[in-house]
Amino acid sequence: MLKNNDNPASQSKIVALPVLEKIIHTLKKKGKTIVQCHGVFDLLHPGHILHFEAAKQQGDILIVTLTKDEYVGKGPGRPVFNQRLRAEAIASLGCVDYVAINEWPHATEAIKKLKPHVYVKGSDYEKTEDDLTGKISEEEEAIRNVGGRIYFTHEISFSSTEILNRHYMVYPDQAQSYLEKFRKKYSVDRVIQTLKDLGDLKVLVVGDTIIDEYHFCHPMGKSPKESIVASRYLSEEAFTGGILACANHLAGFSNHVDLLTCLGKTNSREDFILEHLKPHVKPFFFFREDAPTVVKRRYVWDPFLVKLFEVVFLDDRPLPSKVETEILTMLNKKIKEYDLVLVADYGHGFLSPAIINCLAKKSKFLAVNTQTNSANTGYNTILKYPKADYVCIDEPEMRLAHQSKFGKLEDLILKTAKTLQSQYITVTRGHLGSLSYSKKYGFFETPIFSKEIVDRVGAGDAFLAITAPCVAKGVPPDLIGFIGNTVGALAVKIVGNRTPVEPIPLFKFVTALLK
Fold it and tell me: How many C-beta neighbours within 10 Å does residue 148 have?
């Protein structure tokens, strides 16, 4: 049984960052040279020990700052060892004098606070272009600004991630066997470069705007006079959802993203939307006088994120003909400019038959998701589109489109591909992963890479937003399935659409999976 480390010598080395700041100030007065190492150190191994010993030779006192659990950023399942265990393991080393948990996501703030004489990193970071995070240059600047220098050790190198992948069951069983085969075909560099190559695509995203509101509350109990559960209000938060979320996800990977959507005049929320769109998303807003912008207000039991009920502010009647004409005029004028048109159709009245036909007929490459939700069940299936190059929906949506509860999923996909002349179809299946079909290569199954779920809201949008440009670029289908499920694993760790899936966390997760 694992017990807490009760060794007083090593325990005394672990201090809070403000305390360490004072200790260093005193040591400097005594003429001591302070050396700082920083990292995750999820699995302490011989390479780390040699790194610390080499660092200690650069001065008198070696301090090690650790990345907090919440900032590790290597994807679901990491860190394997929590910050307390990681700190205790490092504190047990004789060459280490002090250990502290960093309070910030990156080392730069800790360097500014502690002001060491020497900041030490491994040789992996010596070439700035090899650093996925791009933070080593900021750390180098920070150490120089406090009068110190950076030093790179060149000891024998190991990878904690590689050791964990090979000897520990970090990921679900099916994912482990899948990844063993996938690593033989695709390298980390190949996958990351594939994602970086999406930057030159010119993309138009089209769909319903949704504002997601989370009203956090605490259930107190049943009202004595009514059949309701009374809940205490705690706080609230609003996110840009629907097509806005798709645009923000995509804007991390493509340098040119235009947005076409419709807002309600009665409560447009335009200022909020503009404030939360990424800077290089260019919006084309159309307004309908007879409706509000769609708001989905969920009442959520905090801290468990259990959704108690939802109130929707929605008028999903067809668009006024004047607004529809304005949108069609814009599409007819500009649609040929785009390499990819991505449609997220939530069935809330924006995408009329005329607009759908225009998109299907005139897009160079059309990617479509038709979402089934409580407001449109049975009325918003993928088969209302006459054509789509890429279809990305979940299994219930595929079955509903064909009125087939028990039919073989592969047969339904083939039928959809034939009807819509689709080159590629992905069906997401929750805990079963995803099933993809390519007209050229056939079917591919991809397992999930994490069972850790914080919130499923918005995960499908993230999957669509980042796989669609991959399909448009002609990326191999097995690689698209992998990319989609890595995006999904990160998305379900985000509350609502609080933040988009960004390139650096995705690159780090890909690296963690494939090492």
Answer: 21
Residue type, 174: Q
Encode pLDDT of 408-446 as tens digits: 999 999 999 999 999 999 999 999 999 999 999 999 999
Report d(CA 198, CA 121) in Å as an integer.
Answer: 31
CB atoms within 10 A of CB 162: 15
DSSP per position, 231-294: EEEEEEEEEEEEHHHHHHHHHTT-SEEEEEEEEESTT--HHHHHHHS-TTEEEEEEEETTSPPE
Most confident of 172-176, 220-224, 470-474, 493-497: 470-474
Count of CB atoms situated within 10 Å of the CB of 419: 16
User: For the domain with range 192-514, which CATH number is right: 3.40.1190.20, 3.40.50.720, 3.30.365.10, 1.10.10.60?
Assistant: 3.40.1190.20
- Phi and psi, residue 442, nearest 5°: 90, -150
- Output the CATH code of domain 8-167: 3.40.50.620
Tokens of 136: 């080593």
Which residues fall within 8 angstroms of residue 406, CB to CB, at 6 or more apart? none
Domain assignments of the chain as residue spans, ordered by start: 8-167, 192-514
β-pairing, 98-101 vs 202-207, is unpaired
> Which residues are paired to 14 by β-bridges?
99
Helices assigned H by DSSP within 155-228: 160-167, 173-185, 188-196
Q: What share of the chain is helix, strand, coil (3-state, %, to 5)?
A: 40, 25, 35
Given a contact cutoff of 8 angstroms between Cβ atoms, the answer to whether 251 and 257 are in contact is yes
SS3 for 434? strand
